[in-house]
Prior knowledge:
By secondary structure, this protein is an alpha+beta fold. The protein is about 45% helix and about 20% strand. It has 6 helices and 5 strands, in the order αααβαβαβββα. Helix 1 (about 5-20) packs across helix 2.
Amino acid sequence: MSADLKTKVAREAATLLYFGAEKEYKQAKDRAAETLGTHFLPSNLDIALELDKIAEENEGLERKERLIEMRKEALNIMKLFDGYCSVLIGSVWRGTIKQGSDIDIAVYADDPEVIIKVLRAANVKILKTGWTTINKRGATSESFHIYAETSEKYGLEIVARSQEEAGKKRKCEIFGDEMKGLNIKELKKVLEDNPTQQFIPS
């Protein structure tokens, strides 16, 4: 399998994802391989790196400005949850945002209603809430998802997990590395030192 074909399939899959023709990585890579007449399927990491390039090509400087704005918004939200081990995750942590990306924050609280009350008290517009159950390798985990909108009209998804899960290592299914994220202190430092810094495997 030539490196050139590998890149072409990854680029095609990333293009489908970027322009919304596909929503999931698996469907995007299957369709890309079919379009290019090959059975080769690139890794999620290959596609994610191409997706980052496409976003940069299409959005340029505006993307960097938006990333800084979204990280500042994330910090403001995280400060509301100072006692709940809040961590910025997702594309705003990674620095790989594209048009339509939202802010993803993990918090650790045994009662998700507490998180909802904090958001309401801060006049954050809540759009939808609900439990999600994931079964991985025989282990079941539950998390409570809160979909909201920030004051600057950015989409916000807060994942509330039990306190005993705080600090637990999680593998990123897209980039293949550990999903570390940024806590409040780390995010402040990034905004001070290098506000558009990316956190992706080299």
